[in-house]
Amino acid sequence: MNISQNGLDLIKEYEGCVLHAYRDAVGVVTIGYGTTNADASIIGTNIYMGMTISQATADSWLEKSVNKKYVPLVMKYDNIYHWNQNQLDSLTSFAYNIGSIDQLTANGTRSIAEISNKILAYDKAGGQTLAGLTRRRKAEKALFDTPCNSAKWIQDTIGWRYMKADGTFTKNEWVEYKGKWYYLKKNTYMAADEYVKSSNYDTTNKLYYVAPDGAWDTKEYRLKKDTKGKWLAAIGSGWYLHDSWARINNHTYYAGHDGYFIVGKTISINGKKYTFDGNGALKTNVISEGMTITNKK
Fold first, then answer.
1. What's the confidence (pLDDT) of residue 89?
2. In 12, 48, 246, 289, which residue has its Cα 20 to 30 A from 118's Cα atom?
């Protein structure tokens, strides 16, 4: 995540901008919103006395510096708090002014509510309350507390999860994202390269395949070999047969409970034994029950 324009505007509201180089109170050559030669590797140039820049350049340098130096100070706690955009913007402004959020968050041990309440305490300099800092802290707290309507994907060492706008993680539910559908399992992690049973969330008892990138494969296949080299049959809208018979190209197949065709073995189905060859075809075409489908190639 990077700071948004809303967050940049908050910083600009409380930071002065000078479009010519000057020496600050301790003699450091400075320009724009406090850009110095410490930022040279970020902005791609050195600052020198006599330099002048445009407002657009000052704004660009501020954004580059903030995203490179201050956003990481906030994001290092993202695995604990899962910041939304408003919280990130607020705390980045805070870090830009104070230097970090380590003390504010007590190194990641405070709750979101405690952090919000603590922001207002940082309005002093030299032991004296400063009106400008009080206004800034109130603005940062107000932004921090403003709900953010954007849900987001979060990746950790286990996989991907989808956090709703209210901060909770989706589970046992499909999520539409950029025109594709993804399934979040009971443990809140996205299903990938596996088959999702609709019995997890409804009573239709269908079987759906999601690709390695997690996207639901909605193509109406008649036969499909998955990444494990096993065969399945799809009968429309991306759902697959399971515990069912399939009639394809004049051969009869049986999809087991996991959706895979039975191959090279004899199994008992509803109390009767059936033998399938190495390609999964029933060795005798006599079946007493089950459903069939017709290849439509």
1. 95
2. 12
Is 15 catalytic? The answer is yes
> In terms of pLDDT, which residue wins out, 42 or 155?
42
- Of the candidates 13, 15, 114, 173, the residue annotated as catalytic is 15
The secondary structure of the chain in percent helix, strand, coil, rounded to multiples of 5, reads 30, 25, 45
Q: Are residues 127 and 184 in the same domain?
A: no
Residues 163 and 260 in one domain: no
pTM of the model: 0.55
Express each pLDDT in 78-97 by its tens digit. Answer: 999 989 889 999 999 999 99
- Asked if the structure places residue 204 within a domain, the reply is no
Strand segments (E) across 126-250: 128-129, 152-155, 160-163, 173-177, 180-184, 194-197, 207-210, 224-225, 231-232, 239-240, 244-248
CATH number at residue 120: 1.10.530.40
